[in-house]
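User: Could you go from structure to sequence for me? I need the amino acid at each position, not a summary. Structure tokens:
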């Protein structure tokens, strides 16, 4: 457990990020950012820039807090965001089938009292088993992939498609816990 000197505000409505903070024993409140998430660049630069935008938008409303913002994306041959439609989810799952891809999460932690800010990115390599069309159809019919980056959730049914990872599991979920621990300790030092 980490003892925080200021209240923590999570600039995300992600249930998965909330669960991971709770696993870490961290008390927090939620204030969801509403920022333009369009940005082009390398995957690492994208998640760093978008997490910084989210943190800045929420920080203005919390003058004496630690604001935590995160952005996660899946990168195969291209950036794979949330598919939104069953057709796009099928395309993404076929593209991931039998291959390695990377999951990037950028974190921005702001101390709004001192103005100090830390930004970091983590990357995890993930390998999918070969998926049959029937498996893809069943998975997409369950609607889990529609609101997940890359059209899958490692912590849900999509986890059965993953046979290897190289890096942080919690990064793939959306909040690299060890990296966050280090950032919280550093910003309060």
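Assistant: Here is the amino acid at each position, in order:
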């Amino acid at each position: 457990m980490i003892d925080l000197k200021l209240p923590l505000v999570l600039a995300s409505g992600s249930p998965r990020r909330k669960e991971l903070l709770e696993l870490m024993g961290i008390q927090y409140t939620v204030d969801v950012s509403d920022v333009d998430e369009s940005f082009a660049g390398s995957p690492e630069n994208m998640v760093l820039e978008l997490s910084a935008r989210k943190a800045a938008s929420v920080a203005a409303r919390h003058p004496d807090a630690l604001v935590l913002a995160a952005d996660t994306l899946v990168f195969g041959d291209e950036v794979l965001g949330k598919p939104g439609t069953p057709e796009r989810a099928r395309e993404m799952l076929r593209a991931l089938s039998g291959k390695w891809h990377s999951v990037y999460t950028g974190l921005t932690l702001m101390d709004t009292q001192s103005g100090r800010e830390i930004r970091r990115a983590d990357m995890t390599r993930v390998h999918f088993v070969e998926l049959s069309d029937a498996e893809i159809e069943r998975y997409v019919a369950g609607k889990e992939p529609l609101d997940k980056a890359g059209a899958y959730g490692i912590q849900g049914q999509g986890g059965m498609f993953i046979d290897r990872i190289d890096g942080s599991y919690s990064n793939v979920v959306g909040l690299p816990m060890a990296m966050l621990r280090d950032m919280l300790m550093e910003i309060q030092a």
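One structural detail worth keeping in mind: Residues 8-187 form a domain with the Maf protein fold (CATH 3.90.950.10).
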